[in-house]
Amino acid sequence: MNVSQFHALKKRQARVSTIAPTGLSRRRFMQATGGVAAAAAIGGQLLKPWTLYAAGNDPLPLPTGSLGPFRVFAPYRRDDPNLQLDPPDAEPSTITNFNGVVGLAYIDGTVTRTKISTGETVELPSLFSDMRFMSGVYRGVDGKPRQGTFALI
Amino acid sequence: MGFAQIDDLNPGITPFPSGLFWTTRLPEKSVHANPGAGTAVMEAHDIAVQDFGDFNNALSGNNGIPATVSFKVQWSGVDERVNVKNPSNGFAGEFVRNRAQMEWSAVVGDYSFVSAPLETSSSQFAEVGTERNGSFYPHS
What we know:
Radius of gyration of chain B: 17 Å
Largest sheet of chain B: 7 strands, antiparallel
Distance between the termini of chain B: 53 Å
Structural class of chain B: mainly beta
Distance between the termini of chain A: 7 Å
Oligomer: heterodimer
Number of helices of chain B: 1
Largest sheet of chain A: 3 strands, antiparallel
Order of helices and strands of chain B: EEEEEEHEEEE
Number of strands of chain B: 10
Strand content of chain B: over 45%
């Protein structure tokens, strides 16, 4: 979920700013920072096989993606000039070796935030929340077929 | 000017950056779907995530603040039916492009969040379908 604070501008432009700094599309942002992310990772987990972190029944990430080093695509409609995500036919699933039902949505709404200790509340926009599910058969780290349900939140 | 993102709630990327992207396991009965009709409901409660503050930090490899989220997402309608076969990425699917709505809540430290009712939300893009990839993709 993405929660934003209003500073005053047209909502259309504001949606973009929740995805990336003003003037940068999500894809451009990834291209600009991909090197930094990769460099940071080389000093840490990237040098180790990722399966060391996973249980046998854990699903595997996609072998590739469109956002720099990250294993995800972002299918989106073609008629929004403010966002340069992937074509609508891009893959919605984030796991591989999968056969099942999927759902994807980018959702806008509003949310009330309460500071629990004081009771102070404020209403905020919740913009472009990327919500997905994958439910079906998958082969995990150990290669065995299993039933499972997963979500991108 | 504009909006400044102040919360970005997701399960993280482990290991960073090549692991599962913001993806976590849900209880089996969290999803009910009829993809041919374009309908689906995903509902889950008290899912462990982290609050990374904003999108940039969520992709930085930094740790976030532990949080929990609950949500209900509902897909409906049939605006378009598409069949996709993508040999280069090794996936195929049949999708209904439609609309989705969501209500959600979260707790992050000293803050709680409760969204407006599901009916007040809207989607910028939504689809439901069936997909196969990887070892289930028909390569022949």
